[in-house]
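Dear colleague,

Thank you for sharing your sequence with our group. We've completed the structure prediction you requested, and as agreed, I am returning the results in plain text so they can be pasted directly into your records. Please verify that the sequence below matches your submission; if there's any discrepancy, let me know and we will rerun it promptly.
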Amino acid sequence: MIRKANTNDLEGIVQINVNAWTINYKGIIDDDFLQKRTVEVVLKRWKESNWIEDNEISTFVYEENNIIKGFVSQKKDSGKYDCEIDSIYVDPLYQNKGIGKKTIAIMPKKSGNAPP
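Please find the predicted C-alpha cells below.
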C-alpha cells in the first residue's frame, strides 16, 4: 500500500534513508561522513526541521505488513507540473522488487492530477 506519510513514519523513513546512503553511496561519499550520518543524527535534524509536516514537501510511503519499505518525497513546483521528486529511497533489503517504480507511479503527470 502507498499512503501519505505521517509523523509516526519518520523513524522508519530515516532508517531507510540512512541505510540506503550507507550502502549506495559507499565509495562515492567519504566513509567517515557516512559513519557519522546515523539514524539518531538524521532523525534529530529532520524532526527539528518538521520535515514530514513541511507544506512544500509531500511524502508517501510504500508499506507492506506494517513495514515501510520505501518512500518518495515531492516538492511543489510552480511550472508545468504540480511537483518534482525531491527524494526516493527503497530499503536496500527490498530493492529490485518494483517498489520505486510503484511509488513514482503515484506522482502527478500533469497539472491537476496531484494525489489526494
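Summary note from our side: The helical segments are 10-24, 31-36, 39-48, 99-105.

Kind regards,
the structure core
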